[in-house]
Amino acid sequence: MAKKFTLDEEMLARFAERASEYDRENRFCQEDFDELTESDYLLIAVPEEFGGYGMDLAQVAEQTRQLAYYAPATALCVNMHNYWVGLVADLSRAGDKSIDWLLEEAGDGEVFAVGHAESGNDLPVLLSTTRAEPVEGGYEFTGRKSFGSLTPVWTRLGMHGMDTSDPDNPKIVHAFMKRADDNYEIKENWDVMGMRATRSDDTILNGVFVPDSYIARIVPAGAAGLDQFVLGIFAWGLINFGNIYYSIAKRALDITIESVQNKPTIALPNGMSHHPEVQHGVAEMTMMLEGIAPQLNEVARDWSEGVDHGPAWTVKIIAAKYNAVETGWKVVDRAMDISGGFGMFKKSELERLFRDARAGRFHPANSALSHEFIGKGMLGINPDDQPRWG
């Protein structure tokens, strides 16, 4: 019988209480992370044969959504671990056992983080400003990785770099470095507007050696390198990003409803909930939210069930994340309007949710990349065609 995992409601309540403290003090969600580790949350995507719960994307997305409702920053950073584990589990179930070592290590308690974001690279994962130099027995990586969620606790950093040793055929090298490796430093520069508890500091690589055994994939640069491993990065990453920002919007709606139901005003004997514009705003928020979850659910379910959408997978994954983040942002912004001036106070949960929600629009694929990939895909234009525009 398969093991079952359920997030504990009392634990989630503690997370909700700590969220404002983490944000205010700009510190990592260490207590949340410790409780999640103790509860086996980091094992939910690990297959049962490796000591986990074997959840697929649709099931992990449901857990992510629930966690994010109480502690969005905690859900966001832990998602970085789950998406590595989940996509490799998918590959293993499909018969590709080449990266099963990652599942073994995850089952043994290793924590995986993401090193993809780079300044000067608007095609994350597909291109890289990090140099991957082939050397005897592996590669040496030199570059700077940003937005490294889980910085205080990761033990493995999944990253990529570009091998240009053959200038006519550049390759993207996907690798995992260990915390104990040499020739890197962490730049503690995480002081941002929202999602502060993720503690997403920079990692500077100064010729980090990664042996061949920790090289996960070597693929062509650009969209030509979108194999199942790379596509899995987008599926597991973006769909769960979408669920996190959906939950922020859902929480904002619930706070709004509760606040206006209990908000008196001398001009309306029945209170602010009877103001026509308040009713209109709540209706707008509700209708916008109703369109997000079904799209996220369908894409996650199709991925988990192995539905063959072919090249359309890129469109479906990016569109689901884009709609969740952009619509979720509108919902939270509307909640601030309805809340009145109280929403601006630091003690208001809406103030934090407003800042957290804005971060979703920075996550890949951002608006520019989303429109480029979907537009080119629908028009039959190869994203790798040069010149890129024109």
Q: Care to describe what's here?
A:
By secondary structure, the chain is an alpha+beta fold. The protein folds into 3 domains: 9-109, Butyryl-Coa Dehydrogenase, subunit A, domain 1 (Orthogonal Bundle), CATH 1.10.540.10; 113-221, Butyryl-CoA Dehydrogenase, subunit A, domain 2 (Beta Barrel); 226-378, Up-down Bundle (Butyryl-CoA Dehydrogenase, subunit A, domain 3), CATH 1.20.140.10. 47% of the residues lie in helices and 15% in strands. It contains 11 helices and 8 strands. The protein has helices at 9-25, 30-38, 57-70, 72-93, 100-107, 228-261, 276-290, 292-304, 312-339, 349-359, 367-378, and strands at residues 112-115, 131-135, 138-148, 156-163, 171-178, 184-187, 201-211, 215-220. The strands form 2 sheets. Strands 1-4-5-8 form a 4-stranded mixed β-sheet. The chain has a 4-stranded antiparallel β-sheet with strand order 2-3-7-6, with no helix packed on it. The mean pLDDT is 96.
Topology-level CATH name of the largest domain: Butyryl-CoA Dehydrogenase, subunit A, domain 3
How does the helix and strand content classify structurally?
alpha+beta
Oligomer: single chain
Order of helices and strands: HHHHHEEEEEEEEHHHHHH
Let me know the largest β-sheet.
4 strands, mixed
Rg, please?
Answer: 21 Å
Q: Could you estimate the helical fraction of the residues in percent?
A: 40-55%
